[in-house]
Amino acid sequence: MEPIIQFIQSNQNLYVEELKTFLRIPSISTLPENKEDMKHCAAFVADKLQQAGMSRVEIFPTEGHPIVYGEWLGAPGKPTVLIYGHYDVQPVDPVELWNTPPFEPTIKGDNIFARGATDDKGQMFIHIKSVEAFFKVKGSLPLNIKFIIEGEEEIGSEHLEGFIQQHKDLLKCDAVLISDTSLYEAGLPTITYGLRGLAYMEVEVAGPGKDLHSGSFGGAVANPINVLAEIIAKLHDKKGRVTIPNFYDDVLPLSKEEKKNFELFNFSDKKFAKELGVQELAGESKFSTLERLWVRPTLDCNGIIGGFTGKGAKTVIASKASAKISMRLVPNQDPKKIAKSFTKYIKSLAPKSVKVIISNLHGAYPTLSPLTGKAVKAAAVSMEKAFNKKTVFMREGGSIPVVATFQRILKAPSVLMGFGLNSENLHSPNEHFSLTHFQLGIQSSAYFFEEYSK
Amino acid sequence: MEPIIQFIQSNQNLYVEELKTFLRIPSISTLPENKEDMKHCAAFVADKLQQAGMSRVEIFPTEGHPIVYGEWLGAPGKPTVLIYGHYDVQPVDPVELWNTPPFEPTIKGDNIFARGATDDKGQMFIHIKSVEAFFKVKGSLPLNIKFIIEGEEEIGSEHLEGFIQQHKDLLKCDAVLISDTSLYEAGLPTITYGLRGLAYMEVEVAGPGKDLHSGSFGGAVANPINVLAEIIAKLHDKKGRVTIPNFYDDVLPLSKEEKKNFELFNFSDKKFAKELGVQELAGESKFSTLERLWVRPTLDCNGIIGGFTGKGAKTVIASKASAKISMRLVPNQDPKKIAKSFTKYIKSLAPKSVKVIISNLHGAYPTLSPLTGKAVKAAAVSMEKAFNKKTVFMREGGSIPVVATFQRILKAPSVLMGFGLNSENLHSPNEHFSLTHFQLGIQSSAYFFEEYSK
Is the ipTM of this complex over 0.85? Predict the structure, then answer.
């Protein structure tokens, strides 16, 4: 492996320049106005796979954004790894809080700042570069590789499941390798074995047929904003538990072994609160912070709007108000079942004086991977070699819906070998990615191909 | 009076054209970008006063928007009427709901559509035209007239009180005449003798130092939107009463006579609900709708915003959320006292996991005018002559802060001779004003000068 690792080390500057080009493409999947950028970005990924040495590269259109596929199957008898990543990114608002423009990648110290730097362009690019290194140094890979890079991860991977279903044979593999998670802390090699799921809903409360003067009409008619606030307030009890009936029915309790593992992290509430800029943490009582983040379901308002929101005062009763409300789910909660319970409960909370319209924007299943699998073990060893430290095993509060899909359709375990950091502002202004982790990531990926091929 | 009334009738088309020019000026007082339009609008009003025959017209600059003053004092020994109005208008959002552009006055049937048509440009223009009619027909007025037309009514008349205080002698008068209220119904002459006051607050809830990924951080940290919703929900009890301590302490109960008067209106909850497009009305229990609108204080959210409010989904915990919350007050509640109680109570509701910042955006005192005064009686007779129907006496849910100010500083009673309709979408898209009421308003105003001069 020595020549490959040396090659990777000596090409860091080139890799960073290529990553910058990738990051300049404003591939925001949720905004209709970026539809062309999405196509452009898919083409960019396809080119890079071709240049890296893939023998077949194809862009599959979907009803949403295209899926990029690549393969090299020149190692018969050896295992096949399917590498998953996504080229789409989150919106950039509030854009005024970015120190540098979100789509002009800027390097400061060890970090590269741009939307998508850590989630997930920087992380998925790692594997394209490790594959390329093998081809450039050795002319071949020690195992078979397939890539599936989608453009709808940030909007619920709506068309991915259908695609996987339709292309079961094309995607057949022994393990799925994903880099879209975080290291527990900088420099510490980490495998993530559990992910939360998601049920993302939108609730609109509609009152009077038009906006009303709050003086002339206030007191006689239900105010949609007040009603919406009252509905939201009723979604938690005083102990921070979600009040939706049957919400916790399918929640898998934490095993004693995991609980013990979590204690090894020496997690500090005080330090965490300080990092987040809050005086104290909050959440469901009787659970530790890591438990609340990794193994307990939550309900959060992701957005709310209604009435006059400009500067100054307007004495109006808005005709409607709406909120985006999402629930993070844990094994074995089912997003479809939860969405149904949510809808039924919200309807029961709304007074007759308003109408409520509830939409299910998207869902994702929670997952839990076995720690004893061959691929997971190989990944742990590989990261240990690159980082020169013992690998730790954690869960993660976020969702990667496709992990559950791969498990169900391809019957393949996923290895979550993440190189990001939670502090890298993913989904926030000033998203960034450590260039050190970028480099160690490419090395880890190369080690993994070697380890897993054994 | 016959020739004057005939003159007014024959000049209707001209009056409407002039009103259109007035309505084209986007004099939105709350938006900094309309500052120049405000100046332009003040100059327009001054010109019209001059043309009408005022012997002295002056634009007084303030630290905010200018105040326009006009006077004609050629009737020594006769009473002096101070006519108050405002040339500023509400913002126009949501602008996409307007059927015609808000600053391109459009006539459909009997109505003229434009922002400010009924509130208050159309109504205050009435008095300029009635004054003009007297000068054109008779060469003089039967009493002394002063005009004070301000540009900050929609933003709390911040600089008006100071101006009145400083110009007590200039503004000295026997009665104040204001047309900024509504007829109880189309064609029914109405005097408004009570107005609600206002305390308009803004509450910002600040949580984490930056927006966070709701997957990676959800469950560990207080969500500012959820906290804000919980605070808002706690501001009413199950009976629709405001829960702020001591909120109702100073509320004057409705007299038996007024209660009886209200019953004469034959108000229909069912019809009202239908007009507003709601299945049922809402509000404080045990009070009739007219009581809830006219004699009971309220609390309404006028706007709320936080997190991701675009199309689609973003899994974010916003670092902050804010709401505009206003309370309509009734005699003898004090807006300053109420703002203090509100602030104290909101602070007591906020958990340690967030910070709350509370601002008092503006306030207005409620008022109640004696029905037995000479000016009120003259106004009732005048409207009766113009409309050819018996005048009714009502209260109004909105606020005209200056009424209390005139009462306090000038010791002058106000006569609220309104020509608008509550259904004319004031503060909403598609604001309009009846051209019939515009005409009858000018006649009523002319009759009033004659009646009150006796």
Answer: no
Regions of chain A with pLDDT less than 70: none
Q: Where in chain B is the domain with CATH 3.30.70.360?
A: 198-252+295-363
Residue in the block written with tokens 């229909």:
B268
Minimal C-alpha gap between B57 and chain A (Å): 30
pTM for the structure as a whole: 0.79
Chain A residues with CB-CB distance to B353 below 8 A: 278-282
Q: How far apart are the CA of A97 and the nearest CA of chain B, in angstroms?
A: 9
Query: What is the reported pLDDT for B28?
Result: 97
Each residue of B345-383: pLDDT tens digit?
999 999 999 999 999 998 889 998 777 789 999 999 999
Respond yes or no: is residue A153 known to be catalytic. yes
Residues of chain A with CATH 3.30.70.360: 197-252+295-364
* Sheet containing A197-206: order of strands: A355-364, A197-206, A320-329, A298-307, B298-307, B320-329, B197-206, B355-364
What is the C-alpha to C-alpha distance for residues B359 and B352, in angstroms, rounded to an integer? 19
Minimal-distance CA residue of chain A relative to B363: A313
pLDDT tens-place string over residues B165-186: 999 999 999 999 999 989 999 9
Which element (helix H / strand E) includes B430? none
Q: Do B30 and A282 touch (CB under 8 A)?
A: no
How many CA atoms lie less than 13 Å away from B10 in the CB half-sphere? 9
Closest Cα in chain A to B318 = A302
Q: How far is A210 from chain B (nearest CA, A)?
A: 7
Nearest to B184 by CA among B257, B261, B111, B120: B261
- Closest residue to A426, CB basis, from B213, B308, B311: B213
Give the pLDDT confidence of B260-292 residue by residue, as tens digits: 878 888 899 999 999 999 999 999 999 999 999
Size of interface A-B (CB pairs under 8 A): 364
Q: Please name the fold of domain A197-252+295-364.
A: Alpha-Beta Plaits (3.30.70)
